[in-house]
């Protein structure tokens, strides 16, 4: 993001949102839900504000939310979590950034599966560390890491491995065997594993999300990160968390206190209630998303020649237009926006510039189906004209 002249560029999500707006196109770019937050959560936040929860919360987070996160990890994954292992953050973004700054030394290497969420390289750069990428590529029926590249990437310089499952943008869901393989690499390198589990509830077709920390003999090596944003359709609330061994949590909190100190008192209280009680909203949200995924996939599958894989989880579907055009995804996305009225994110923007993975995905565009049913429907009209 930092250009050679020292200025900082806008995220690809901001750029593509402007592109869509400039042409009045349906914005299937940024993964920002087009349906609203659950009413009980909104009411709980409003109640908390009226009850005076309007000042700084404790640095570690409100005890009610800390308890709720520990309870949620136990209930969903059988992970035993004590209250000194939870830190509330300003979304998963702050959790990831604070964890990287706290745990990765300057000059260390961080292994990232590519394509990746764009906050990872920014935080790795801020830590003075180096990102080492491992491609996630199309395989029969989905996407999978290039294991040879993974094994080659692991070395004594590896300080951390970031695993995002369910994976943005491919919709891949890492199974237990894959997660254990990654963990074994971390053990070999004596490195941390940072899991980014923000799409933990948005898993389709009866498949299951696995929390790595619940399945290893050395859970203290794992820093688990998640957020309420996607699970409860409250991406703007920015309530996230870290689960890590007490001294690791304390180190991450030490960084977090100088990034934001604290945030979101009434929002923390509301999220605590929803998490603790096992609100039905995340599974309703998943089912409604699965329906929108179906509408978008059905439309895309009418376009002859393109490669469309069914995402197993998350907000996004990848479409490879390479068989249809020589244009790269940036040019093509702009033309589709102008001529067909819908916008996505070129996947190469979620890769290291010039990497073999970026080259592999040069004509691939990510479309988000977390938009409102009306928006998804409107996009299908444009897709039908492509067909
Ligand atoms: N990780 C991934 C993979 C994401 O897609 C996103 C966000 N959209 C985040 C982290 C950030 O989550 P939050 O909004 O809670 O900071
Ligand atoms: N994570 C969301 C996505 O991948 C967007 C978050 C952002 O705009 N930074 O689309």
Key terms:
four-stranded antiparallel beta sheet, alpha/beta, 13 helices, binds 4'-deoxy-4'-aminopyridoxal-5'-phosphate, Aspartate Aminotransferase, domain 1, eight-stranded mixed beta sheet, Aspartate Aminotransferase, domain 2
Briefly say what this structure is.
The protein is α/β, with parallel strands linked by helices.
Euclidean distance between termini CA atoms: 35 Å
Indicate the percent of residues in helices: 40-55%
Strand order of the largest sheet: 2-9-8-7-6-3-4-5
Alpha-beta content class: alpha/beta
Taking the sheet with the most strands, its summary is: 8 strands, mixed
Please report the number of helical segments: 13
The value of Rg in angstroms is: 20 Å
How many domains, in number, for the residues? 2
Strand segment tally? 14
Look at the structure and name the CATH superfamily of the largest domain.
Type I PLP-dependent aspartate aminotransferase-like (Major domain)
Give the low-pLDDT segments: none
Could you report the average pLDDT, rounded to the nearest whole number? 96
Tell me what portion of residues adopts beta-strand conformation: 15-25%
The outline comes out as: globular
CATH domain class name of the largest domain = Alpha Beta
- The CATH architecture of the largest domain can be named as 3-Layer(aba) Sandwich
Domain Aminotransferase class I/classII large: 26-340
Cofactor: pyridoxal 5'-phosphate
InterPro entries: Aminotransferase_I/II_large (IPR004839), Kynurenine-oxoglutarate_AT (IPR051326), PyrdxlP-dep_Trfase (IPR015424), PyrdxlP-dep_Trfase_major (IPR015421), PyrdxlP-dep_Trfase_small (IPR015422)
Keywords: Aminotransferase, Pyridoxal phosphate, Transferase
């Amino acid at each position: 993001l930092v250009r050679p002249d020292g200025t900082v560029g806008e995220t690809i999500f901001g750029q593509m949102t402007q592109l869509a707006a400039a042409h009045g196109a349906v914005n299937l770019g940024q993964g920002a839900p087009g349906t609203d937050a659950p009413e009980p959560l909104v009411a709980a936040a409003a109640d908390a504000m009226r009850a005076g929860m309007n000042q700084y919360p404790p640095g570690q987070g409100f005890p009610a939310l800390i308890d709720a996160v520990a309870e949620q990890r136990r209930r969903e994954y059988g992970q035993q979590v004590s209250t000194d292992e939870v830190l509330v953050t300003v979304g998963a973004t702050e959790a990831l950034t604070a964890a990287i700054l706290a745990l990765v030394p300057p000059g260390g290497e961080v292994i990232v599966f590519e394509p990746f969420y764009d906050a990872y390289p920014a935080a790795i750069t801020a830590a003075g560390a180096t990102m080492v990428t491992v491609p996630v590529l199309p395989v029969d029926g989905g996407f999978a890491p290039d294991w040879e590249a993974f094994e080659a990437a692991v070395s004594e310089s590896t300080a951390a491995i970031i695993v995002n499952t369910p994976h943005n943008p491919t919709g891949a869901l890492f199974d237990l065997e894959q997660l254990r393989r990654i963990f074994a690499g971390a053990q070999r390198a004596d490195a941390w594993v940072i899991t980014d589990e923000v799409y933990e509830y948005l898993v389709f077709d009866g498949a299951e999300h696995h929390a790595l920390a619940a399945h290893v003999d050395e859970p203290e090596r794992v820093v688990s990160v998640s957020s309420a944003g996607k699970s409860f359709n409250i991406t703007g609330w920015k309530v996230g968390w870290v689960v890590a061994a007490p001294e690791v949590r304390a180190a991450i909190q030490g960084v977090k206190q100088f990034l934001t100190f604290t945030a979101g008192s009434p929002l923390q209280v509301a999220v605590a209630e929803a998490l603790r009680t096992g609100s039905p909203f995340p599974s309703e949200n998943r089912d409604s998303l699965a329906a929108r995924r179906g509408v978008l996939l059905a439309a895309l599958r009418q376009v002859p020649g393109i490669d469309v894989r069914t995402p197993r989880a998350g907000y996004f579907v990848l479409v490879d237009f390479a068989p249809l055009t020589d244009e790269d995804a940036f040019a093509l996305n702009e033309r589709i926006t102008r001529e067909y009225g819908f916008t996505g994110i070129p996947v190469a923007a979620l890769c290291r510039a010039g990497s073999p993975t970026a080259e592999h995905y040069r004509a691939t565009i990510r479309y988000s189906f977390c938009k409102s049913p009306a928006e998804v429907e409107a996009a299908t009209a444009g897709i039908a004209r492509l067909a």
